[in-house]
Structure formats: C-alpha cells, structure tokens
Write a structure and sequence with these properties.
The protein is built from 14 helices and 7 strands. The longest helix is centred in the middle third of the chain and has 15 residues. The radius of gyration is 21 Å and the shape is globular. It starts with 9 loop residues before the first helix and ends with a helix. The structure holds S-adenosyl-L-homocysteine.
C-alpha cells in the first residue's frame, strides 16, 4: 500500500497565503490534498479552490477529502505549466493565491509500480503523467555514456556520475536493456565504492536525477513562475516549497529579480524607471521547525519562499 503524503509546513503556508480574503486560490501541486484541505477549510463562502495535478491517480483520494465546506472546488488534471490556459478555460482572470509544493509525493515515491523508488522491483517509469513520452527506462537505455554522466551530475549532483554512467553502458552492452529499478540499483551499488557512500542510499541521487529529467522539472518551474505572477491580483500571494538546491536556486533568483525596482545593468544609469512587480515576503527561505522534521523526516530539505504581487500602478503614482 502506498503511504499518504504528509503536507510540509502547512501552518506557514496557510499563514502566508492568507486565504481568509475572498477570492480564487490555486493549489497547483495537489498531491494527496493535505495543503488543499488546509486552504479549503479557511475559505469563505464565495471563494473558489482550484486543485491541479499532473498525476491522474491523485484525484480519487483528494475528492474524498475535499468535502463539506461552503467554498467551491474544481479539480483539474493538467500540468501547472499550463496554468494560464487552465484558468482561462475556467473563465478566471485573476487569482488571490497560489501554492506550488514541488517534486513528488510520498505516495508516488512509495508506490511499487511507478518506478520512483529504489526499493522493491518494478519497471523504471518515473513519469508523473503517463502521457509523457519518455520514461526513465528510455533514458537509461538510449542516452550515451556522456549524456548519462552529465545528467546524473547535473540533476543529482552525484560525485560518482561518471562511474555510474560507465557501469550502465557496460551492463547494457553485455546483458541488454535495463528494465527495472532493482537492476539499476545494483549497477549503481557496484559503481559507488563503499567508502564513498555518505548518503542514506547510494542510488538516491541518480534516481532523483532521472526523475527530474523524465519530468523536466526544472524547465517546468521556469515556465510556471511568470504565469503565476501574471495571474495574481494585486496583493495576491505565491508560495513555493522546493526540496533541492537546483529548484530552490531558480525560485530564489526569479523572486529576487522580480522584486527589484530597477532591472537596468548595475554599471549603467537607470533608464527603466521601473517598479518591482513583486514584494519579497521571505528575504530568507523559511525552513521547517525542528519538531516537524522530527515527526516527518521528509520535510528536512524543504524551503519555502513567498512573494506578494504589488499594485504597480499605485506604486508608480507614489501611493
Ligand atoms: N501538497 C501536496 C503534496 C504535493 S507533492 C499534499 O499536501 O498532499 C507534489 C505533487 O505535484 C505530486 O502529486 C505531483 O504529481 C505534482 N506535480 C509534479 N509536477 C507537476 C506539474 N508539472 N504539474 C502539476 N502537478 C505536478
């Protein structure tokens, strides 16, 4: 049985989203609906919750949980990279708040059929949406040694990426295609010397890298952020929780850039007379409290960053 996901930093998210204001709130990474339920309970009658997820399998569980409160709920099976299209399809122009809780859910990770996990035995799939064309199995069997090494180094920040890539290509050449997660785990174990195993599991970083590549996770984050900012009404909030440094860096840079009044090159006089579109509400990323990490170790790497959309016209008029 797959485990239900425990939502991370729920109190912090709810306090930043401030859903007591009447409006439309979007949870664009619905998962098992833990955060969505928290949001839903706080909404006023007349407010609207939109839940989006790329994984069709989440909706059954979430439908059971989101019942019994007066706000409207709409659930949409889509990628958050289509946020503007989804909102336009529902006739919604502006939203008051958006949550992105990036990555995979515990349920996806612990499922014995999805291939995200390095435990058990199943096909190396790792697609969040089964409409995606390439699985992890395709990548492992089709990429060249150099492409694999670069991918594992870049997305997994794995020191032994070259050795792992070489072993994958050797096994492929000798014994044919690699089909299952446990085959890959054994290949990784034989590439990483026991002395170099500082991780909880030697396959963790390689599996993370493949998952990021299959789902194009970093590109997705880059695509959704500007759409999120465009969709927010003045005063609207955007909360993003990331779980590894590559994602967090993207979010941090984008938020910093968009909350600077002037975006002219620093060595030239300002010609833009710009006013920042965003106000940074978390100058430093918010981390989970130690009690939360104790009760939910998966929260350990979480980083929450929040911005509010400014009213640029008012700001320009100096109000
Ligand atoms: N906050 C949720 C857990 C979210 S886990 C809870 O409280 O239960 C991350 C979820 O984001 C997963 O369900 C995953 O399928 C989804 N996801 C990942 N990439 C996505 C994308 N591009 N578009 C929509 N959902 C995505």
């Amino acid at each position: 049985m797959a485990e239900l996901h425990i939502p991370v930093m729920t109190e912090e998210v709810l306090s930043y989203l401030d859903c007591s204001r009447k409006g439309v709130y979007v949870d664009a990474t619905l998962g098992d609906g833990g955060h969505a339920l928290g949001i839903y309970r706080q909404l006023q009658a007349g407010s609207h919750l939109i839940g989006i997820d790329w994984d069709e399998q989440v909706f059954e569980e979430v439908r059971k949980r989101l019942r019994g409160y007066p706000a409207r709920v709409t659930l949409v099976h889509s990628s958050y990279t289509r946020l503007e299209e989804v909102l336009a399809g529902l006739g919604i122009e502006k939203i008051s708040g958006l949550l992105l809780d990036l990555g995979v859910s515990t349920r996806q990770l612990s499922s014995e059929s999805r291939g995200f996990s390095y435990h058990g035995e199943c096909r190396l799939d790792m697609r969040m949406d089964c409409r995606l064309e390439r699985t992890a199995e395709d990548l492992v069997n089709e990429l060249s040694e150099k492409e694999l090494a670069d991918l594992i180094f870049r997305y997994g920040e794995e020191r032994f990426s070259r050795r792992i890539a070489r072993n994958i290509v050797d096994v492929r050449a000798k014994s044919g295609p690699i089909r299952t997660n446990d085959q890959l785990v054994n290949i990784i174990k034989s590439a990483v010397p026991p002395a170099g195993r500082r991780e909880k599991h030697p396959a963790r970083r390689t599996f993370q890298a493949l998952r990021i590549a299959v789902n194009q996770e970093l590109g997705n984050v880059e695509r959704v952020l500007p759409q999120a900012v465009n969709s927010l009404e003045p005063g609207g909030r955007l909360c993003v929780i990331s779980y590894h440094s590559l994602e967090d860096r993207l979010v941090k840079r984008y938020f910093r850039e968009m909350s600077r009044d002037c975006r002219c090159p620093p060595d030239r006089p300002c010609v833009c007379q710009g006013v920042a579109e965003l106000e940074l509400l978390t100058p430093r990323a918010v981390k989970p409290a130690s009690e939360e990490i104790r009760s939910n170790p998966r929260a350990r790497s979480a980083r929450l960053r929040v911005v509010a959309k400014k009213d640029v016209l008012k700001a320009k008029a100096g109000e």
